[in-house]
Specification:
Number of domains: 2
Distance between the termini: 25 Å
Largest sheet: 6 strands, mixed
CATH architecture of the largest domain: Alpha-Beta Barrel
Number of helices: 14
CATH superfamily of the largest domain: Metal-dependent hydrolases
Radius of gyration: 21 Å
CATH topology of the largest domain: TIM Barrel
Shape: globular
Number of strands: 18
């Protein structure tokens, strides 16, 4: 029987293994939690006993399992979770968007809100404790009121390059919500082909003055790249006024690239663009399940790694993926890039994604001063290498999760 996870008085937690980051593992290590943060750590059983005496707390042994930092999902659309399995990928990305909007229009706010909460439950149940979520309808934060999942809620900005819509979109930037430790604001200009340069410039100004992170869909499809650079392709029938340059150049022009910016998908970077991204410290977020859903060409992971681009993992929405389970994303990444070391896969799903969300000093690692966001996986291993291999390839069961030191695992761990 797995150990019970209802903790009173927050003891020092210990397990067969503690994995604080991708580069080390502590057999019999421990974690002391106080006031929602990690107050101290221990690398072995003797250290756990000393830590318990220092804390004046009992030791709670979580058994033959591995205690890790909670996984961090760098990109999702929880408001679309109710559409899971209802929109096929047939006919390509444009046809998928058209069907998505049709189906979403048939759903009331109550259905979409319930779906968002179900998706958040699923994330917690599969080891994710923090998510970067795109909120285009303004429903998600209300739907998740009281939910333990930590959310970087990016407000989506989109004017379809229509001047009639730009003014309202810019005005909305003055009404950004106030954040808290588990509800953090951000900005999401949708994509370079759906956002005017005026709106990009306004988003950049607000991001700088309010110190908000930015996330943008970029270089996702060949249609996007062709229209941006040449005004050609299927988007030419829908949009006018191609900038005749790349989306990355527009981001550079308006000062949108930097360490607090994440570029989502990045499937088709132009020549030299990975190096330009690396020079700014921006992160590229890969979503393997979404990539497989649309049967896309291989993701150019090696180009980004050679250039030194920070990398992160996301799930995208359940409407363009089979799940919102980062364990599955890691396993898919390993199957499509077998040469990638397991520790780099784990890094993308923890430290890399936390950096992408501007939360690298708070989540993604087990270290003194970090938020006590943890996950407990069933895993019997003999070494760090063995631990990471199983965590990133075999989708081990999750015994529990904690956010701010409080047990938070949802009761239903079945796939949605």
């Amino acid at each position: 029987m797995p150990p019970r996870l209802t903790l009173v008085g927050m003891p020092v937690l210990t397990a067969r293994w503690v994995l604080p980051d991708p580069d080390q593992a502590w057999p019999g290590g421990g974690v002391w939690i106080e006031a929602g943060r990690i107050r101290g750590t221990a690398k072995d059983a003797a250290g756990v006993r000393r830590l318990a005496r220092r804390a004046g707390a009992r030791v709670r042994d979580l058994g033959d399992a591995v205690l890790t930092a909670g996984l961090v999902n760098a990109h999702s659309h929880l408001e679309l979770h109710a559409l899971a399995g209802r929109v096929s990928a047939g006919g390509g990305f444009g046809a998928w968007i058209a069907r998505l909007l049709e189906v979403r229009a048939t759903c009331g706010d109550d259905v979409l809100s319930a779906g968002a909460r179900k998706g958040a439950d699923r994330m917690l149940a599969t080891g994710t404790t923090t998510v970067g979520d795109i909120d285009s309808l303004g429903l998600t934060l209300a739907a998740l009121r009281g939910h333990p999942l930590r959310v970087r809620a990016y407000r989506e900005l989109l004017d379809a390059r229509d001047p009639a819509r730009t003014k309202a979109a810019v005005a909305g930037l003055s009404r950004m919500p106030r954040g808290s430790s588990r509800r953090l604001p951000g900005l999401a200009p949708h994509a370079p082909f759906t956002v005017s340069e005026d709106l990009l410039a306004a988003a950049a100004r607000v991001a700088r003055t309010s110190k908000l992170p930015v996330t943008i869909h970029w270089a996702e499809t060949a249609a996007e790249v062709a229209w941006m650079r040449e005004g050609s392709g299927p988007l030419s029938a829908l949009l006018q006024g191609s900038p005749r340059t790349s989306g990355l150049t527009l981001f550079e022009r308006h000062g949108l690239l930097g360490p607090s910016t994440s570029l989502v998908h990045g499937n088709l970077p132009g020549r030299g663009e990975p190096g330009r991204i690396a020079a700014t410290g921006a992160t590229v977020v890969h979503c393997p399940g979404c990539h497989a859903f649309f049967d896309r060409e291989p993701f150019p992971l090696a180009r980004y790694r050679r250039a030194g681009v920070p990398l992160a993992l996301g799930t995208d929405s359940a409407a363009s993926n089979g799940d919102v389970d980062l364990r599955r994303e890691m396993a898919l990444l390993r199957s499509t890039h077998p040469g990638l070391a397991p520790k780099e896969v784990w890094r993308m799903a923890t430290i890399g994604s936390a950096h992408a969300l501007g939360l690298g000093r708070h989540v993604g690692r087990i270290a003194t001063g970090m938020r006590a966001d943890l996950a407990l996986f069933e895993r019997n291993a003999r070494s760090l290498r063995d631990l990471l291999d199983g965590l990133t390839a075999s989708m081990p069961p999750v015994r529990g999760t904690w956010v701010d030191g409080r047990p938070s695992t949802a009761p239903d761990v079945s796939a949605s």
